[in-house]
Predict the 3D structure of the following.
Amino acid sequence: MLLGNHILTVVTFLPLLGAAIIAFLPRGNSGRIRMVALVVSLLTFLVTLALLFGFNGSGSGFQFEEVHAWIASPPIQYHLGVDGLSLILIVLTGFLTPLCVLVSWTGITERTKEFHVFLLALEAGTIGVFVSLDLFLFFVFWEVMLIPMYFLIGIWGHGRKVYAAVKFILYTMAGSALMLVGIIFLYERTGTFDYTQILASLSNGSLPLTHTTESLLFWAFLVAFAIKVPLFPLHTWLPDAHTEAPTAGSVMLAGVLLKMGTYGMLRFCLPLFPGASREFAGLVSALAVIGIIYGALVSMVQPDLKRLVAYSSVAHLGFVVLGIFAFNTLGMEGAIYQMANHGVSTGALFMMVGMLYDRRHTRLIKDFGGLGTTMPVFSTFFMIVTLSSLGLPLLNGFVGEFLIIIGAFHARALWGSLAAVGVILSAVYLLWMYQRVFLGEVTNEKNREIPDCNPRERWMLMATVAVIIFMGIYPQPFLRQMDVSVSQLLARVNPAAVSAHSAKPPAPSASAGLGLAADPPAVDPRSRGKDRESQPGMSLHSEATISKFGPPARKAPAKSELVAQTAGGASR
Amino acid sequence: MMTTVGSADFIRILPELILSIFALLVMMLEPVTPLGKKTRLGWVSLAGVILAGLAAAAISYFPGAAFSASISNDGFSVYLIGLLLLISGLTLLGSMSYLERDAVDHGEYYALILMATVGAAFMVASTDLIMVFIGLEISSISTYILAGYKRGEMQANESSVKYFLLGSFATAFFLYGIAFVYGLTGTTNLDIVRETLTNSTGTPEPQLLWLAVILMFVGLGFKVSTAPFQVWTPDVYQGAPAPVTGFLSTAPKAAAFAVLLRVLVGSFGHVASAGPVVFWLLWISAVLTMCVGNLAALWQSNVKRLLAYSSIAHAGYVLVGVTAGGADGTSAVLFYLAGYALMNVGAFILIGHLAGPGERRTEVKDFTGLAAERPGMAACLTVFMLSLAGFPSTVGFFAKFYVFRSAMHAHLTGLTIIALLNSVVSVYYYLALVVAMYMGEGKTEVSESPVPRALGFAIAVSLLGIFFLGLFPSGLLRGLTSLHVPWL
């Protein structure tokens, strides 16, 4: 392959290289700066696509791994790798960044050079977070990427931008301070920052953690991620940051940055501290459900379009967290899929709100009305994206939410049902918003002259809608890529679910493919250890686990077919 | 006891000797240098600093004691002398244009910087309490004058007098502590002190020993501005010329930390009866210092005052490393001092330049819109601030990281959490300046004067250091861990 074994380095540092190039371009020529940014971000997107197609869905462990020594003391490695958990998020980042450049094409006129430098630096930092397999490296990217975002909000934002920017950075740093303590603690116990080594020593029992220690570590990591997600009640930074950020900033924030939190839970909280994850799953799920309902209710009463979309993110990410903490295949794959969905759909919503704002310099719902007659093309796109966001079958949002709700239902029936209520509520606020903005008569004279989409916007929205539809009707290729990673994770975090399966006679039928997980019983840690000993196949990297579970290649289509069937059935 | 003084003794203090000779040379050249050409003396002093640096590199091959074991030439002292020379070199480069601009370019300034460095260098190399005290005095008296160098200004006078009065108190405390140590052990030589204290089965009066330790700690606490002995710091730092503040906040502080390590931790920390006292003194003052520095900094509107509180907070972080002790803690502290010197000296000389003639614009709001007018300088200042705040890829991050890791290693988890939360708080006020420069509405009347070459060079050196150590810190750290530290 052309990129050899360094594809992850390329995908991480290509945007940074672009940022460096832009930094040396003359200040005056905004057109050229935009063009360079666009080309670099498109190239990066192509590399992420190469990653997606080069990824071997049935291979276990990390792929495209790169390990180099970075710092000798303490031993910190430049260790990159992707698996099914991070792959789709990297592609998502690659997809959204060119759109961010395009959406700012005419909206950003001041300090275009710095804007694009920060935007590309942000992309590099975000991808870095997703590919790092060294806890220290992860932390470095996690912190570094705050700075470009901070400047994006603070310089090119609206209204109380400084307040929003500072709030954003302080919230995140407060969370990550505790995470750093956790990271250093793990280092002190294991002598390494390497994720795979730490995971191995935690799972083979060579690093025994007491119950209290594990809980504390779990919370040290979880709080950092929960702030980022954001999980109720740590969400208060989000409405400010999303609303005041420039459009590209909101798209990146909602599209990618929030996923860093849920990704962190999947990557670190669950596999490193499975006992504590099980113990607190109920609590976290409850918070997630509160977030779903609360986010939806608050969205309903927002007079400001952008704030409405911002609060809807609280609800949507609640779904993701609920799916993760359901500890079964459906919930978890649904959650990962929903991360990508939310990135595309909410990113598109923010882009379109930005387009409206560029035209009318207002975001208040009451200033609009009847735009359907003056902007037919735009309204159509908006409709599709709205429907995807509320989870209409055949569009991407449905697949994720459906999987999550089923998964959650199996784990905790009550939370699953409440989450389903959340889906209805999301239909209420989104459709009501659509009605007030686009349907009816034109109420404000200024809206009569409002121009429809220009070609640039049309292309952007067409690309987005194409992705939305594709992900809605054909999720298999994406889901298949996650199968192995998710089942490995589940084998670690919820052996009960896996052993229930292995106890069953073979036949990976559709129901087995569902990965039905009974409510994880409150397992005593000691007896859990015994369980693992008695089942040699339970260790994380063992192929036996997977074979017991049914070969992934055979299992995946079974489930995906089910999804496709349900999707088709519901649409009929 | 008669001892002979040989050439080896002089070789082992070669850097200090060279600096003293150059200081005298500058004093002698000053009257014959025409007015307006005094910058030449700055270059002469710089040559002295470079020569002393070469000498320091050379004497690292002649380790050992000098002058009846009152000076020790070991890895620890050579490294710190090198650091002090770097600080004074950067300060000299940043001062020349500043002094010319504010029409206070006299030769004494350079001589005083050199003498202050000599004093600090003796502090880090002394293994005898009396020598420590002499070094402390040489360094202090030079810096008292430097603080009030702009004698026409009220603020500078206030700064100088305050520094002098409180500093004298502090050194008196320190001397009182030395007296108790002498009374207890009959010597001021640190090695013998330690031996006597460890070998004597149970010191007859542990209370007296505690008193001695506490008194010396108070004296050094003033110098490194730990809470509650920090009250002088904001006024002095604000009133002194900016390059001097940069020097004050790094060189004497580094020297005082070295004494703290060598005397308190190295000599008394290992003594059974005094160890816990030293530990808790350090622990409590670390917490107090971090909290006071960071919380007070939140309310500051003047950049120099803000950075003064920030330097108090940083002293607190260093104290965390000192508390952790051991090889880990010591190397972390030494790393921190280097990183802190790079960012703080750089920040102060840049602010001194941006503040314009007479340093009239030092309020945070004076920096509003700087990014639009002078993007390069705003970017430099932003890097300094981000490094002070401890963002990754700058040296500030690794400095903090190593200190916190050593603290975790010593099972000081509580202290580490307090320190980390403090560093989160600090982000707010460092960003206040960035907010003003990049996000504030309005324009600033920045000095149109181009960056003088020497000053630009000093800033470039500090920036390079910040990024190099921020990306590849292990070289320096490995060197520091393998450093010969006598008491470890």
